[in-house]
Design brief:
By secondary structure, this protein is of the alpha/beta class. Helices cover 31% and strands 19% of the residues. The protein folds into two domains: 141 residues, Rossmann fold; 81 residues, 2-Layer Sandwich (SIR2/SIRT2 'Small Domain'). The strands form two sheets. Strands 3-2-1-7-8-9 form a six-stranded parallel β-sheet, sandwiched between helices. Strands 5-4-6 form a three-stranded antiparallel β-sheet. The longest helix has 17 residues.
């Protein structure tokens, strides 16, 4: 693309839907079986850590069996072939971007990582975690999923905001536009003078803020868009 050197791309649950991983709004999926308040908040973990571990163990097993789709592969190709700077940020915790070969910033944590609530040490999570699991660093029985729950501060926000304020193009792929601070990234990019494009199956809550819109399944729209970016179109 003419005049484009720095790109920031944000991906959400929609990019992994075609890999069989459900979103918050899918009927019949893991999220449909639980209230957010029961499995995805610090208070929920305090009240019933066994239920929270059971929920994330199921998500972890599901993600371990999933394969990246054409959209993940296309973004990994763009990152590898782009001559300028490109930051790929995801709200997803499934690890499919890495499976596709991309270098990604996880703002909401990772299913394959465990976190000590006592000392903040991180280590590779087993497929199944249990209540009272011991931290290998400090020995405290405080292991939890390394997931940013509702009410907690996302990771790497300052680094992402710095990139948004310097980028020439911001793209959001498969995001709902409902979860902040990620939903506000398009406004940050617009204020900085960047072009903005949304690639989504349907309009999101933040569609109005984007300059360009590409609608359709991510496995079809993202590879075509990446081809155009790399071709300078």
């Amino acid at each position: 693309m003419q005049g484009i050197e720095r790109i920031v791309i944000l991906t959400g649950a929609g990019i992994s839907a075609e890999s069989g991983l459900g979103t918050f709004r899918d009927e019949g999926g893991l999220w449909a079986q639980h209230r957010i308040e029961d499995v995805a908040t610090p208070d929920a973990f305090g009240r019933n850590p066994a239920l929270v571990h059971e929920f994330y163990n199921a998500r972890r097993r599901q993600a371990a069996d999933a394969a990246p789709n054409a959209a993940h592969a296309a973004l990994a190709r763009l990152q590898a072939d782009w001559s300028g700077e490109l930051m790929l940020v995801t709200q997803n915790v499934d690890g499919l971007h890495e499976k596709a070969g991309a270098d990604v910033i996880h703002m909401h944590g990772q299913l394959d990582s465990a976190l000590c609530a006592a000392c903040a040490y991180r280590w590779p999570a087993p497929l199944d975690m249990s209540v009272g699991e011991i931290c290998p660093s400090c020995g405290a029985p405080k292991a939890r999923p390394d997931i940013v729950w509702f009410g907690e501060m996302p990771y790497h926000v300052e680094r992402i905001l710095d990139a948004l304020q310097a980028c020439d193009l911001f793209a959001a792929v498969g995001t709902s536009g409902q979860v902040y601070p990620a939903a506000g990234f398009v406004e940050e990019a617009r204020i900085a003078g960047a072009r903005t494009v949304e690639l989504n199956l349907r309009d999101s809550d933040m569609s109005y803020a984007f300059e360009y819109h590409i609608t359709g399944p991510a496995s079809e729209t993202v590879p075509r868009w990446v081809d155009r970016v790399l071709a300078g179109g």
